Input
Amino acid sequence: MRVGICGGGIGGLAAAIGLVSLGHDVEVFERSPDLRATGAGLNLWPNAVRALYGLGLREPYDRIAVKLDRYLGYAPDGKLLFEKDTSGWPAKYGAPSTGVYRLALNTMLADAYGADRIRYGSEVVSVENKADTAVCHFSGGESFEADVIIGADGINSAIRTQLIGGVKFRPNEHHAFRFRSVIDLDLVDVDPAAQTGIYTPGGWLSVIPIGGGKAYWFGSVSGARNVDEFIAYFASWDRTHIPRTISLTPRDSIVESPLLDVDGTPYTWTQGRVTLLGDAAHPMMPDLAQGASQTFLDALALRDVFAETGDVDEALRRYEAIRRPAANYVVERSKKGSYLGKHRVDPVAFRYEDEIEAVGKDEHVPA
Ligand SMILES: Cc1cc2nc3c(=O)[nH]c(=O)nc-3n(C[C@H](O)[C@H](O)[C@H](O)COP(=O)(O)OP(=O)(O)OC[C@H]3O[C@@H](n4cnc5c(N)ncnc54)[C@H](O)[C@@H]3O)c2cc1C
Output
């Protein structure tokens, strides 16, 4: 079977790895001119890590990721707000919660697929279904015809917009931006085996180790419209590590991401021989930190349905039946907001156990 994957992010590459392992002929088209990773770090939970293990990536993933044994939350005066021990999660859930450097993760996935095989500089502008094939068209005028086309082109998916629609975005009223960067772990005064956050209802900043001696910090301030306003909020927090951590972070390395509330979900992921995967299929707010996890679960499910049947229509039907309800459940849960946000939900490590593991919706049993 010939497969075209539009988007060489973590989802496109994970899907390619799964389908290549079945012996399929898979081409990955990425619009960037080379391997990039937007953002800085990721918290990948046991469900994501199990999916990566399922895709045969246990050894390379364990090499680049850091196991998180604790989630700690403090007030700016040093008072402990919450503590969650996650050191037993590998025994309980089959995998640890982890921190990982995005670039290391993308590089690992690219290497597992074959970094020199990725067709960089290929921007997909449209897709088209034919009788028994599908075609993607590129901005340079070329086309690629395959038995299946997978739209893994991210949260603003052109393929979703063209074929299906159903998703609208609007600015989040409370926390409009998230700011993040990477710094040497030994420059930050935090537990190196924990995610450590310092929280007030108006603003927060969390640090997570991500391997290679690096730490990823990310935070948000209600009403802050730019990095200067974000930094100014923490100026008086001199009983915490935050002013120093920010001052040691190169200013031009701080990434500013608008946080968009998502209205609606695609009514289907599949049109003919084209289906969606990852953020293209289930754009969500990052408050549950589940976007990448759900993306890896998509890739695993796609591999498993094609392992069971060579009938493309049947495989895509099963893939969507397994994944769309499960992912949409997480999309809805992600709308509840963040700890100390408007709805005062529990810290994410508690929510992960209660809303993801306890419910078991992310596991799939191919029909
Ligand atoms: C601030 C923030 C923090 C987050 N933190 C976490 C976290 O801690 N844990 C977690 O699980 N998730 C987290 N996420 C979500 C996670 O980043 C995404 O869910 C994940 O990257 C989705 O992978 P993807 O491959 O679907 O999309 P992407 O990673 O966006 O990749 C899409 C790829 O497609 C390419 N592309 C786009 N359009 C085209 C086109 N027309 N033609 C060809 N190529 C194209 C892009 O260049 C890109 O390489 C976070 C997201 C944000 C914004």
Q: What stands out?
A: The chain has a mean pLDDT of 93. The pocket of flavin-adenine dinucleotide is lined by residues 6-12, 29-32, 39, 42-44, 48, 123-124, 152-154, 158, 178, 257, 278-280, 286, 289-293, 295 (CB under 6 Å).
